[in-house]
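Q: How would the structure tokens look for this protein?
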Amino acid sequence: MPRPLTFSSWVPEFLVVLFVLLVVLEAVRPLRRPKRSRPRRWAVNLAVTGLSFGVGVTVVRPLALAAANWAQANAFGLFPWLALPFWAQFLLGFLWMDATFYWWHRANHVYPLLWRFHNVHHVDPDLDVTTSFRFHFGETFYSTVFRVLQVALAGITPLTYLVYEIFFNLATMFHHSNVALPIDLEQRLNRVLVTPRMHGIHHSAVGRETNSNYSVIFSWWDRLARSLRVNVPQGQVVIGVAGYLLPGDNGLRSLLLLPFLKQRPYWRWPSGKASVRAAAPPDENPHHLVA
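A: Here is the predicted structure in token form.
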């Protein structure tokens, strides 16, 4: 007898279908050439992802939903206080979730203790859909505090939270994917959405480029905060963190221990040379996406 189709059942299945579709497109139209063996790298990425998802499902989501239900029951938070209609609460709540996550993501780059954990995501020497959720479980765990405050302070409804989570996951897989979209199409999409070329620059081994392009769904947060940089050709982007490009740096044990070990200079190659871009990008406008 087939299972009844419920919200909780079709969403994970849809995400798996999208994941598989992106893997196929990456093979057909790759944006960048992989540097490492896929099977071993994918196994490590999926293992780290599994630990992160475990914490997300058992800790982050239940507490965030509890905060949303509590805020609604007690009319607590910005949107309930403004007595906005449901549709306005939903739309503004969705934008609030994305805008505040921009600043949370940026904080994980700015503050050294948070970066120790977030660095696990960035040291991947290749970037594709398997990198999407490759976060240290410690980062996922401490992000619970942010999620609860994010939801409670604005009085986000449970529906808004769940819908945002779906689009958050879709966008994360899309912009981490190694899919070469036609440049004209991507330039148009990038006016509103974060795209693979835009996020590829965020995973550059050049520190100035990694510390840009923090948005998840809507690209305009980077434009408003002046952190957008999309004028670097993908052929010039070296993926990873310069100080962590040795083969052993991406083993499962190394990744799980990385936040707790003495940190290397992040933006220096193993040779000791600083990871800077020798030549200026051909288009000096940082807001103009190039191929």
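Confidence is low (pLDDT under 50) at residues 1-9.

The CA atoms of residues 36 and 166 lie 30 Å apart.

Upvote if useful.
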